[in-house]
Write a structure and sequence with these properties.
binds nicotinamide-adenine-dinucleotide, seven-stranded parallel beta sheet, alpha/beta, about 280 residues, single chain, Rossmann fold
């Protein structure tokens, strides 16, 4: 097939957590850029909505959990069976900890919260990468992982979330090293946005959404660029990293897509004063 529409014509991408928020914005943008997309999401409702909205020639949605290797493998297989190959794996599904602090978490919550959050945010990225690796080596494709400002600075979550996103930095660096020269591995670190981002069941935060504990004004207020970004605002760097024409040279690179946050950091009260 010859290129007809966009930067990702004829490319096939698998996006985890593509059912809402940033993942859904990536589905929309990648389709707009000419890609065909597979999604792995644990929400049956979101998977059904995706199937209803996008035609079978454009999207295949798999309901499953990123913490189970078999589900990641099913999603990769669905992409390859439906569209013939896989060019891009986007590890994106994650949960937040609503900035639960070390002091406020009980030891039991710290343990169970760690198990649940790291299982999704870190193990999920590794299992997805593992499942996609063969197909990506074959296509000489790329992996992109969603990070966060919490991959680089404190104050955007509690220790569980911040540590999980720092761990994802290690995954990117190690996999960029291991999978060269066939596969480019990069990351994008967004800042706060309105999405369906929730917390761990083990912390009782499964129904708590990010905007239940944040306001658009509070998010805009800490950003040097002083606006409240929408999920779609973050999709450009993913397109650039995934595009074969625009990115032959970046691997092991993490793009801070955080409206300048690193320039002056997040202003927070000192947590040690709680006691
Ligand atoms: N919302 C923010 O402010 C913000 C800021 C920085 C980074 N991020 C990152 O953006 C990414 C996307 O999050 P979002 O904000 O769009 O939230 P979201 O909840 O809207 O999207 C995440 C999706 O992942 C799915 N999911 C969750 N756990 C899963 C699992 N175990 N298996 C399969 N699917 C699962 C959810 O059903 C949901 O559709 C995450 O990596 C998050 O850490 C978000």
């Amino acid at each position: 097939m010859t290129p007809t529409k966009g930067w990702l014509d004829n490319e096939v991408a698998l996006i985890t957590g593509g059912g809402s928020g940033l993942g859904l914005a990536l589905v929309e943008r990648f389709v707009e850029e000419g890609a065909r997309v597979a999604v792995l999401d644990r929400s049956a409702q979101k998977v059904a909505a995706l199937r209803e909205r996008f035609g079978a020639h454009t999207l295949v949605a798999v309901q499953g959990d990123v913490t189970a290797y078999a589900d990641n493998e099913r999603a990769v297989q669905a992409a390859v069976d439906t569209f013939g190959k896989l060019d891009v794996f986007i590890g994106n599904a994650a949960i937040w900890d609503h900035a639960s602090s070390l002091v406020d978490l009980s030891p039991e919550q710290l343990e169970s919260g760690f198990q649940e959050l790291f299982s999704i945010n870190v193990k999920g990225y590794l299992l997805g990468a593992k499942a996609a690796s063969r197909a990506l080596i074959a296509s000489e494709g790329s992996m992109i992982f969603t990070l966060s400002n919490s991959a680089f600075y404190p104050g955007g979550g509690g220790p569980l979330y911040t540590a999980s996103k720092h761990a994802a930095v290690g995954i990117i660096r190690q996999l960029a090293y291991e999978l060269a020269p066939k596969v480019r591995v990069n990351g994008v670190g967004p800042c706060g946005m309105a999405s369906d981002l929730r917390g761990p069941v083990s912390l009782g935060q499964q129904d708590l959404r990010i905007m239940d504990s944040r306001t658009p004004e509070a998010i805009a207020g800490i950003l040097p660029l002083q606006f409240f970004p929408q999920p779609a605002d973050f999709t450009g760097p993913y397109v650039m990293l995934a595009s074969r024409a625009n990115n032959r040279v970046l691997s092991g690179v993490m793009i801070n897509a955080d409206a300048g946050l690193g320039i002056r950091g997040i202003r927070h009260a000192a947590g040690g004063l709680h006691l």
